[in-house]
Here is the input.
Amino acid sequence: MTTTLGVIMNGVTGRMGHRQHLLRSVLAINAQGGVALSDGEKVLLRPVLVGRNAAKLAEIAAEHGIEDHTTDLDAALADPENLVYFDAQVTRARVKAILRAIEAGKHVYTEKPTAESVAEAVALAEAATAAGVKNGVVQDKLFLPGLLKLKRLVDGGFFGRILSVRGEFGYWVFEGDWQAAQRPSWNYRAEDGGGMTLDMFPHWQYVMENLFGPIRSVYAQTTTHIPARVDENGRAYDATADDAAYGIFELEGGIIAQINSSWSVRVNRDELVEFQVDGTEGSAVAGLRGCRIQHRSTTPKPVWNPDLPVTVSFRDGWQEVPDNAEFDNGFKIQWEMFVRHVLEDAPFPHDFAAGARGVQLAELGLRSAAEGRRLTVGAL
Ligand SMILES: NC(=O)c1ccc[n+]([C@@H]2O[C@H](COP(=O)([O-])OP(=O)(O)OC[C@H]3O[C@@H](n4cnc5c(N)ncnc54)[C@H](O)[C@@H]3O)[C@@H](O)[C@H]2O)c1
Here is the structure.
């Protein structure tokens, strides 16, 4: 049997809402015949597109044969057939809209960060719990093939005792004057909810917590390397938000993680994000898709001698971790999980409380940078 679940989608004209959530998740799920429940039943998703621009919504709806679209969020929320509210709006608009959805009794799923401050993020989690609605936050990086392979290595005991993690994330985002910027301009304005720390620390929080363990402290240095940019309409603006964040995190068990995040760095890596993990028994370098390892028994013995040219090709001494599985789109996997969570109470650990821990790390990172000191990450 097949049933249909009404899903309000707010922010589908945006980068994430359109590509990852509407096309690669919701419509892709329908194209494969729906979400399979444990009893074999299939659930199709009926998207209701919500946004501020009626013409843009109508265009997207027509392109994909979607019937429902409106600029009236309250009307969409009033329809009892729409059980789920999803939010991919700019971060700043999120809390208000989600609170309305919770008030209307909807189950809520959202892009990260769930809010701009810990106080708001915790309030959202409490409101959802008090209303008894299911709640979830996107934690897509956990489903990247490279990080799934890394998790496999951790779970298989490959590393021995993990000592350290080095993350390198970023790429050059054009200033917008002589080449158009490839990210929205609000990302570079603090007053619009932008900034590297608020954007990426929530990701690093759940990556570290799920792969290596809870985070105990943070020290961060943030900066705005490029202070002026040009927006989508060709207008110059002041970049008031941080465009780079250099963080050092202490994890349970003494693991030290260091993650550089920058939109002002040119890529000299194999992937846009890479994590090197060093353990007593072996090391790994994981990217979005790939993951390479070196075991202690195959570790070369470098000897420091600047008078001689390097004779060993260090990169050649690493072995590729095999796929051993087919990797689906992570956003889609999480949508399927959330639908099962809503309809048959399947486990979904990526809830608003988890989202609040991500916002907490961002807030502490920014405070650490402002005060120039290391801060403890306490329980929320
Ligand atoms: N999970 C991820 O990897 C990931 C990646 C990028 C962005 N995000 C998150 O997704 C959200 C959207 O980011 P994006 O890059 O798609 O942004 P975007 O600018 O491309 O899209 C923003 C959407 O919000 C809408 N919107 C609602 N109120 C608005 C307002 N007051 N001003 C401007 N736009 C408004 C826009 O119309 C648009 O549909 C953000 O919260 C961001 O943190 C997540």
About this structure: Residues 113 and 287 are 22 Å apart (CA to CA).
